[in-house]
Amino acid sequence: QVNEATMIPPDKFIPIAEETGLIVPIGQWVMGEACRQLSVWQQAGKAPIGMAVNLSPVQFENKQMPAVFKQIVKNSGISPQLLTLEVTENMFLDDIDRKIESMNRLKEQGIKLALDDFGTGYSSLGYLHRFPLDALKVDASFVGRLEADPENREIVKTIVALAKNLRMAVIAEGVES
To answer: For residue 48, what is the enclosing H or E element?
Structure first.
């Protein structure tokens, strides 16, 4: 039984895990658990559903990550097309070509990629077409103000049009109403 007083939210422990390098084994465990759960549902005869897993910038720096994830997916027996790895714009502040290469290695395995929190980071639109992405995730800060802010609606419309023109799906975060 989990005591809520002992629970530590992700925004508190992830930066520490990144600083110490523990995010790499944690990320591998999360990927393994995601694949294991998908396998359990598959064996139970459930209709195939996808699952998204957030990928830390520190995990993305690990050159072994695509090979490790390939082995995790293979061991689970699930279809890699059921997985989407979510990356953030700040992952692409440097060494873009190597990161695109890692993304391509993941895509070759059948794993999907989504750009999380789109519109809040630092990536250049000039690079966006180079990334082998399947989806853009519109940040909740934009979605939550759709009704109240006409300018915000225009930003979201533009993101949707951009994604469509780049043949990407669009995912809205923070849809509660």
So the answer is: none
The string of pLDDT tens digits covering residues 54-66 is 998 888 888 889 9
CA 112, 118, 122, 127 torsion-angle sign: positive
pTM summary value: 0.83
Over residues 20-35, the pLDDT tens digits come to: 989 999 999 999 999 9
Q: To the nearest 10°, the Cα dihedral for 39, 15, 111, 175?
A: 80
Alpha helices, H only, the chain: 10-20, 23-43, 57-61, 65-76, 96-108, 125-128, 140-143, 150-165
Residue 92 neighbours by CB under 8 Å, 6+ apart: 99, 123, 127, 131
- The SS3 of residue 116 is strand
CA 118/CA 89 separation, integer angstroms: 7
